Amino acid sequence: MSKMKEVPDNRLKSFKIQAKSEVAHLNAIDYFDPFLERNLEHPTTNGETLTHLLKASLGTGILAMPLAFQCSGLITGVFATIVVSFVCTYCSYLLVKCAHTLYRRTKVSSMSYADVAEVAFANGPAWSQKFSSFTRQSVLWLLFVTYFGTCSVYTVIIASNFEQLFAYHMGYELNLRYFIAMLLIPLVLLSYVPNLKYLAPVSMVANLLMATGLGITFYYTLCDMPSISERPAIGTIETFPTFFCLTVFAMEAIGVVMPLENNMKTPRNFLGVFGVLNVGMGCVTIVYILLGFFGYLKYGEATKSSITLNLPTEDVAAQIAKICISLAVFCTYGLQFFVCLEIIWTKIQENFEKATIFHNYVLRTVLVTISVVIAVAVPTIGPFIGLIGAFCFSLLGIIVPLIIEFATYWDDVTAMMTIRNLLLITVGILALVFGTANSIADIIATYGPAQSVTCAINSTLTQPIAE
Questions:
Q1: What is the pLDDT of residues 282-320, one digit of tens each?
Q2: Is the dihedral of CA 243, 244, 249, 252 positive or negative?
Q3: How many CB atoms lie within 10 A of CB 227?
Q4: pLDDT tens digit string along 111-141?
Q5: Using one digit for the tens of pLDDT, what is the confidence trace for 202-212?
Q6: How far apart are CA 194 and CA 22, in angstroms?
Q7: So what's the pLDDT on residue 306?
Q8: Distance CA 143, CA 140 (A)
Q9: Fewest C-beta atoms under 10 Å: which of 29, 43, 57, 177?
Q10: How many CB atoms lie within 10 A of CB 285?
Q11: CA separation (Å) from 442 to 168, 177, 327?
């Protein structure tokens, strides 16, 4: 059984700020290979890591891609999705690249996202060193809040889809909270999967279920398609920010990048032209484009917040699609939960040296229970989590990795790097502003007295079953 030791406890006190001469000594004379030093009890293969990455990226946001294309237009949507995918992938690449550099500088074999941020700032220029601890804590809590909130939302999505099917077949309705509460025991059991190695089959099942659900959805979208000329090729300036936010927050999976790399048997293969990261995100981009393009082409202005809502509920195939996608989301819960568990368990180990595997499983049970209780208490939690996600993912997924690169290579910053990173940071700020604004509008639409305000950014979370 794993004791969550796949990712070592890398605390700042174990990292010494290296002078340039010391770093050169490490790199040139006393060479240290972090990957040979990495000792994992349950390492994951390239295939298992790719499976996890696909599952993390192919989340519920993909169901909103037809709506995103409605906001961008058919042709603009294709090219804009490629650009968004490139930005998300590139920022993840930078994070791992900086981590590999810092492994050798500090003679450690692995780091979490928070570790990378802290060590980069601690070894960076004078202005960054005093912010190293603050940066670490900020990344940790942004990650935890985002992914723990996602876990709560997932329980609502799963329960909502089953509630819809129950009402259709039984002829009467039950309160959504009952269905959420019934998920507690299955989710607790799922959280007991000890580590990413054993979670790989669960992610594989989730990918198969999602593929089945999307395959059926594609079948409906490809039947009796209208002519491409009936849909606008280019959207309006006013609706494009909604496309941008939907696509960024659907694709972003920055929180699982370092845990996946840390648990790899061959971490060098995570990067590279045909590395796990590029292959995984390339596949994800193709699926996103296909579903967005054909979904909008099929349903046009009738496209709903989630493409599954356009499927006829009375058809058995459509019901199977909804069940498969719901079960896929259930399986994905384990991967999202792993990020939260790793953060809190590391904190506990730092403060309680006698923490055992028993305490680890108690923590798992408590965290799952809290996430379900939150969902039961506020079934319409989606808009608030959307606000958190818009804020956190813009920072974690785009802005912070770029700043980390500046801090890591501060003595070798080129004009090209500066221009490129400043441009991408601007993109991240735009995502932050528009995502936050749209999420606030969604909260007003859901909870405010005026119900006329509409917002698409989190419709897939707040309206999972509405017809």
A1: 998 998 999 999 999 998 888 877 787 788 878 889 889
A2: positive
A3: 7
A4: 889 899 999 999 888 888 888 889 999 998 8
A5: 878 888 888 89
A6: 39
A7: 74
A8: 5
A9: 29
A10: 20
A11: 28, 22, 27
How would DSSP label each residue in 422-462? HHHHHHHHHHHHHHHHHHHHHHHHHHSS-------TTHHHH
Q: Any residues with CB less than 8 A from the CB of 415 and at least 6 apart, and which? A: none
* Burial class, 327, CB count within 10 angstroms (exposed 0-12 / middle 13-18 / buried 19+): buried
Short-list 365, 290, 300, CA closest to 67: 300
CA angle 287/293/295 to nearest 5° reads 95
Contact 383, 458 (CB under 8 A): yes
Pull the structure tokens for residue 43: 């390492």
User: In terms of C-beta density within 10 A (0-12 exposed, 13-18 middle, 19 or more buried), how is residue 171 classed?
Assistant: exposed
Q: How long, in residues, is the chain?
A: 467
C-alpha span between 105 and 336 (Å, rounded)? 30
Q: In whole angstroms, what is the distance from residue 74 CA to residue 72 CA?
A: 7
Taking Cα atoms as reference points, which of 34, 60, 456, 26 lies closest to residue 251?
Answer: 60
Backbone phi, then psi, for 124, in 5-degree steps? -90, -160
Quick one: which of 392, 396, 410, 331 has its CA closest to 52?
331
Three-point CA angle 188, 57, 215, nearest 5°? 95
Q: Are the CB atoms for 308 and 200 separated by under 8 Å?
A: no
Cβ atoms of 164 and 313 closer than 8 Å: yes
**Which single residue is written with the structure tokens 């909130």?**
149
